[in-house]
Amino acid sequence: MSSPSPSPSPAAPPADGIIAPELPAPPSPLRAAITAAWLRDETEHVRELLEQARLPATEQAQAQKLAVDLVKRVRARAQDQGAIEAFMRQYDLGSEEGVLLMCVAEALLRIPDQDTADKLIRDKLGDADWEKHLGQSDSVLVNASTWGLMLTGKLVNLNDLTRADVPGAFKRLVGRVGEPVIRLAVRQAMRIMGHQFVMGRTIDEALARSRKGDNADYRYSFDMLGEGALTTKDAARYLEAYRQAIHAIGRTGPFADVFAAPSISIKLSALHPRYEHAKRARVMKELAPAILELAQLAKSYGIGFTIDAEEADRLELSLDLIEATFSDPSLDGWEGYGLAVQAYQKRTPYVIDFLADLARRVGRRVPVRLVKGAYWDAEIKRAQIDGHPGYPVFTRKPNTDVSYLANARRMLDQGDALYPMFATHNAQTIAAIRSIAQGRPYEHQKLHGMGDDLYAEVVPKHRLDIPCRVYAPVGSHEDLLPYLVRRLLENGANSSFVNRITDENVAIEDLVRDPVQTVSAFDAIPHPRIPLPVDLFRSQPAPIQNSDRDNSMGANLANDNDLRALAERVNAAVKPWRAAPLVPGAVVSSAALPVTNPADRRQTVGEWQPADSGTVEKALANAVAAQPAWDRTPAASRAAILEHAAHLLEQRMADYVALCVKEAGKTIPDSVAEVREAVDFLRYYAAQARAQFGAPEQLPGPTGESNQLQLQGRGVFVCISPWNFPLAIFLGQVSAALAAGNSVIAKPAEQTNLIGHAAVKLLHEAGVPEAVLQFLPGDGATVGAALTQDPRVAGVAFTGSTDTARAINRALAGRESGPIATLIAETGGQNAFIADSSALPEQLVKDAMGSAFTSAGQRCSAARVLFVQDDIADKVMTMLAGAMDELKIGDPGLLSTDVGPVIDADALKILDDHAARMAKEARLIKQANAGEDTAHGTFFAPRAWELTSLDQLHKEIFGPALHVVRWKADQLDAVIDQINATGYGLTLGVHSRIDETIDRIAARVKVGNVYVNRNQIGAVVGVQPFGGQGLSGTGPKAGGPHYLPRFATEKTVTVNTTAAGGNASLLTLGD
Questions:
Q1: For residue 818, is pLDDT > 60?
Q2: Over 60: is that where the pLDDT of 149 sits?
Q3: Facing residues of 597 across strands?
Q4: Disulfide: which of 228, 256, 404, 594 matches 343 by Cβ 3.0-4.6 Å?
Q5: Known catalytic residue: 719?
C-alpha cells in the first residue's frame, strides 16, 4: 500500500529524546486548522456558526412552515401507531423504569448463570415504580399489558380485577412464579425490542428484510454490531465479519449508482485492539492495510463504504488512516469511500474543508455523513477528568443543532468534492436543509426503527422526494444491547425530538423552533451548569460543598500541537541534575553519588550528596528555632504561598515530567498525572488551612461566656516520602505539615532525591522560609533513624512499607523525653478486585489491567488479586491473556509505551523471586512481551497467574503482577472474609451490575477506598481522599477534610465575660 511517507521535520529532535521520536512531521495548513480548533472558545465559535446557519427571512419562514406541516402529518399517522412505539414513549428516560428495563435486559443477556441473573431481577425490578405508568397511556399495550409484554412477549388481556391493581398483581406474580419465569419474559421482551431496532441477526436476514414491503423504499447502510476489539483475535474476527458482509451485500447487485447502492459501516475500534493516538505508528502499519483491503472489496462490488465516527481523541488518527487509504490509486474510479463527521465537535468545519481538499487532490468525491454525535456525556467527563482547558464538544444541544446546519451548508457548498448525507430524525433540520440545498443533491439517513413516520412524509415522490438511507444494525441479542441502550437513551431523553414529535402536549412551534433563534436568545452561549474543567470544584451540584480552588490542568496527549510544545519543553529541561541537603548554615562535605536512569542504567541523569549526622543536627536546631514565627504567620498567608507554588508547578509541568521520566522511570501519562496530583495537594491544603486555621471556631455555651477552639502547629514535622510518587506524595505530606503551621524536615526516598530537591526549591521560591522547610536526603540509618529518635520531633508523616512504619512507630515510642509524637502512616495493601458474572468482561479486563499494570504496578492502590466468578472466569482469563499481548513494555519517555521499568535492582529481584515461586505453585495466564529496548533497564514484564487461593500470597508484591482467583456464586461472603483476613485494607475494586451485591461488599469490606465499575487507582485529591486501615495505615486520609487537623494541636479558650461586673449583652436585651 502506498501511504505518504512523513518527511523529516527541519529541526529533527534527538533520537533518544522524550516524546519527540514519535511525533509526526508538521501538518499541512488544513490539518493544522483542525488541531487548532480542538477546544475553540464556544461563544466565539457558535457566533460564527450562527451566521452560517441563518436562513434569509423568507426562506426561514418557508422552512418553518414545512417543518410544522411534517409534524402535523406525523401526528396524524401516530394515532394508529404500533404497540412498540407506545411502549417506547411510555418508558422514556423521564422514567427510571425505562432505563431500568433496558439495563436489566442488557445485563441479563450477558449473565451466564441463573443465580446471578435472578439476583439482578430482584435487585432492579422489585423496587421500580410501575404504578406511575399503568393507566397513563392510551395504548392497550402499555396500559394493562405492560407486564403482559414483559412477561410473555405477547399481548395479554388482563381481567378487570388485575387491571385495577396491576402493581399488586405484579408483586403477587413474582411471588408466585419467581424470578426464572421473569427472566425468560424479559429476554422475550428484548427480542421484541431487538426486532424493532436491529435489522437482522445475520447480514443475510437483514438484507432479506430490507427488501420487504415499505423497507424497499429506502437505501441501506449495514452496521455489524459489537464492542471494540480488545485483542488481536477480536480484531481478526471483526475483519472477517466485515469481509463476509461486503460479499453478501455485493452479491445482491449489480449497482449502477454507488450513491444509491447499499453500503457497509465500519468501526475502526473493532479492527484494531490499540486504535489510539499514542500507538499511531503501529496503527498505521497494521490497521491501514485492513481498511484498504475492505475498501477494495467494496469497490469490486460497486457498493458504499463508510467509516464511523468515534471518540474525539481518535478523530485525527482516523483522518491519518483515511488519507493514507483513500489516496490509494487502486480505488480510482469509485466514489463509495466515505465517513461520518460529528456536528457536536468543534473541529468539524475544518474536517469538512480538509476532506473536500483531499477529494479534489485525489480526483473523486467523498460521501460524508453528518451526525449529531453519540458520545457527548463521555466527552464532557473525559475533559473534566483530564483537566483540559475546554471541551472538544458544544455544551448545549441547541449549539450542536446550529453547528449541524452550518456544517450542512459547508458540505453542500463543496458538492463538487463531497456527496452530502444528513442523518437526522428532526423535522426542523429536514426542512432547513431542504432550504439550504436549493435543489442540490443530497440524501438523508435515519436509524432503523426510529423516525419511520417522519420519513414516510419525506421519501415518497409526491412528498419531498428526498432519498433516505437506513442505518441498519446487524447482530445477535448480546451485541444488540449496548447499541440498544445507547439508542434508547437518545430516543428517550425528554428533549429528544423523536420522543416529542408525537406528544400532543408539546406545542408544534416549540418542537420546530429554529435553533438559530433559540441560541441567539441565550444570555450565555455555553451551558451555565457545565463549568469549564478548571472551575469544576467551584460549581458542584447541591448538597456538595463548593470549593474555591482550581482543578489542576493536564496535557492533551492526543493533540499533536500540545505534544510538540510539551516535547520541546521536556527535552530542554533534561540536564545533569544535582541534589544536596538544603539546610541553612550546614556544611556538606560528603561525596556525590550518581543517579542512573531505571530504563537504561548506562545513562547517568544526575548526582546527589547525602546528609551526614552534623547536617541532621543543624537541620533539627534550625527547625525548632523557625517554627514559632511560621506558626504565627496568618493561615491565609501560608495558604497564599502554597497556592503560588501550585501555580509555578503547573506552569513548569514539563521540567517535572522530565525528572519523573528520567529518575523515577515514569511513563508520560503517569508523569503528567503526578504533577497534577502535586498541584491539587498544594491547592487543597491551602483551602483547608484557610477554612480550619483561619479564625478560631466559636463554640456554644451559657450567656456571659465566650468559648473558642483554635488550631496551631505541633512543632517540627518529619516527612518521609516514597519513590513511587516522588513529587505528589512528597509535596502532599510537606504542604499539609506547612499549612498547619509546622516547620518541616523532608526526607525523600533514596531512589528519587533529584525530584524531592526540585520540589523543595520550588516551595522556597514560592515563599516558604528556608529554615521552615529543609531537605535532608540520605539513607534510612543515618537520616531517618536519627530524626525519628530525636525528642525535638513532634510528628512524622510517612508513606512506605508496613515494616518501616512499624520501625518508626517503635522509635517514636522508645523516646525517653519530648512529646508523645504523632505518626501519620500510609502503607501497603493486598488490594483485591471482585467481579461477579453480571460484570461486562471487556470493561472488567480493561480496568483490572489498568489497575494492575499502570505505573508498572508500583502504586499502593494497585490491584494485586482479581476474584472473578467461576461462571465467567475462563472467558475473562482468555481475554486478559489476549489483552496483555497488546502491552508495550519499554522506554517510558515514548508515548507508545504502556509499562516502564520497576524502580531498581532490589525491586526487580523480589519480583523475579516471586515469579520463580509462582512457576511452581500457580498457573501462568500470560507473561507480556518485553520490548527490544529493555535490556539495560530494570524491567519486569507484566504477568498474570491463576491461584487456587489467596493464602498463596504472603505479602504485597510491588510490581506488575496480577493474581486471579475463582469464586462460586454462593461464596461472596467467604471472599470478603478472606480479603479482610489479610489485615490490609487500602483499595478494593468491584465490578457488578447488582446494587445489592455492591452494597453488601462495600458495607463489609474493611478498606479505605472502594471503586465500583471502574479501575481502582488514581485517587483524586479532595474527590477520593486516599488512605487505608489495618496494616495499610493509620489515617486520616490524605487529600481529605480530616487530614490537616492531625498535624495540629487544639486549644480551647473560655472567657467569663461577666467578670468585669455584669453581663452587658443580657442586661441590654430590652423587653
A1: yes
A2: no
A3: 600
A4: 404
A5: no
